[in-house]
Design a protein that fits this description.
Helix content of chain A: over 70%
Order of helices and strands of chain A: HHHHHHHHHHHHHHHHHHHHHH
Shape of chain B: globular
Largest interface: A-B, 26 and 17 residues
Distance between the termini of chain A: 17 Å
Oligomer: heterodimer
Largest sheet of chain A: none
Number of domains of chain B: 1
Shape of chain A: globular
Strand content of chain A: under 5%
Largest sheet of chain B: none
CATH class of chain B: Mainly Alpha
Order of helices and strands of chain B: HHHH
Number of domains of chain A: 2
Helix content of chain B: 40-55%
Number of helices of chain B: 4
Structural class of chain A: mainly alpha
Chain lengths: 541, 76
Amino acid sequence: MLFTSYQFIGFVILLVALYYVLPKKAKWPLLLLGSYVFYFFAGWKFLFYIAGVTVITYVAALLISRNKNRADARFAELKALEKSGEGAPEECGKEARKRYKESQKKKRRRIMGVGITIALLILAVVKYTNFTIHNINGLLSAFGSSQRIGFLTIALPMGISFYTFQAVSYVIDVYRERHEAQKNFFKYALFVGFFPQLVQGPISRYGDLAKELFTPHPFNGRVLERGLERVIWGYFKKVVIADRILTAVNTMIDTPENYKGVYVFLVMMFYALELYADFTGGIDITIGIAEMLGIPMKENFERPFFSKNIAEYWRRWHITMGTWFTDYIFYPISVSGPMLKLGKWSRKHLGEKVGKRIPVYLASFIVWFTTGIWHGASWNFIVWGLGNFVVIMISQELEPLYRRFHKRFHTDGSTTYKTFQVGRTVLLMSALRLFDCYRDVPLTFKMFGTMFTTWNWKSFGNGTLLELGLVRSDYVILGLGTILLIVVSMIGRSGSVRDKMEKKIPFAGRWAIFYVLTLVIIVFGAYGLGYDAAQFIYNQF
Amino acid sequence: MDELIAILQEIHPDVDYETATNLVDGKILDSFDIISLVGEIADKFDVVISAEHMIPENFNSAQALWNLILTLEDDD
């Protein structure tokens, strides 16, 4: 059941209607039922994966929580016994209590370790088995062996990377005492499986989302209207822009030998637009559906293409994934005992300036490698992740140089320089995304190189663009659609666009706008003869 | 507290740490700064700031960070 299918739209209408009709107690169970029905239609076999991850992480968190409560009670008891003079000598004193506390914490850490390892193993097996086999076969071939391991038939369950990360963060947060474990299994199952976010995130945290999921939200016309507006805007991005430009991108990357030079630049820019419209459109639909039910969700984007550098871009693109990697991989690695020791050693032997960078850069390398492989089981994504790492590290190292430059030429804060920075970020990010497009890493480098060796800029004027599967009217729609995206983003810089519309445009006017937008989706959506609604790009991750 | 301020000033000399309360939320300290800070604090105060303490509230001001150090020193 694709987000872009009529079945899905019917399903959402029915679910929203039932949500507001049913009594308070039945609201969250309805969401759970709806979520599992949605998942059933994605493939009933996949239900075992999501149910498995849910059970494992539920049990792990519950055991951690129980241990914590028991340890706290015992700790208080030991203190009281000591005060009254009845405590056993070996259990008395601050040091003894500290040892007890530490031993219990170690137990909880072990439970957490087992829980998240099993959950991540499930993800690793379904996502990376064939990639591992592919690499082993490559090694066998390199060493002259004719032996090959056969690939396994494993279908990637929809949204597994997203719900596994969500469930893992829940267990870690219970361990870190950010919140209590959820005792009601079915409520927890709803948190893991809430249907709009199963397709491509956002990766929600229990502390942010759970309460809103379980609260019975009463009907509110304004909330419903705002949610619907966001859903319509999301469909516009997905169906009118992303699915339209997809045809041209696929034409150029399917036969790369025919599309070198300027076409690679075109792939860069078209794919950047496709991915942006596809992913942000999908997230708009997700957040909009949740909003229609009265459930606010974390934003996943903050106008990323207005960023002045790549580090900022990553703070504004797929925000929930970025913060997940920071909180659960970057910080734990950076402040771990071995890393602190490495920092101490490197500061002593390599000097303060270089030494303090070593642990941070090493942790960043691991994070970007993981980010790459999380996006897909292929070297393309790993190189893409490490490409981001290299660019961020270079820009970090060049920071003093930039500061001197700004001081000398008074460029910091000037509009011209800001525009240059934004343009540079767009180009860099779009260039790195070429690894998403071409079938392997060497081909990507080769195609990138042709931009500087094959001078075929005349193609822009000789009508070849009309041979990419798009006709003149498609380019007009894409041009106007992109202008609209940019204008809306620029208006959004000083606050919510819908808030502004609500203040300035009366109800009838707003509805007229969204009615027209709906008509545009129906009339100009990229459906043609034999059109097959494209799955969201991030769905495959 | 003075020792902590001195460490912070090494990272960003231009910030008034006596009054600043949005070091993380205001993007004054980034993750690189925070990791350097944790290493320095471990050296100077002999306390371990672990991943579970890595939340903006603990790093938003010098006072909040100082409170965290005191809590970790007297973890009872």
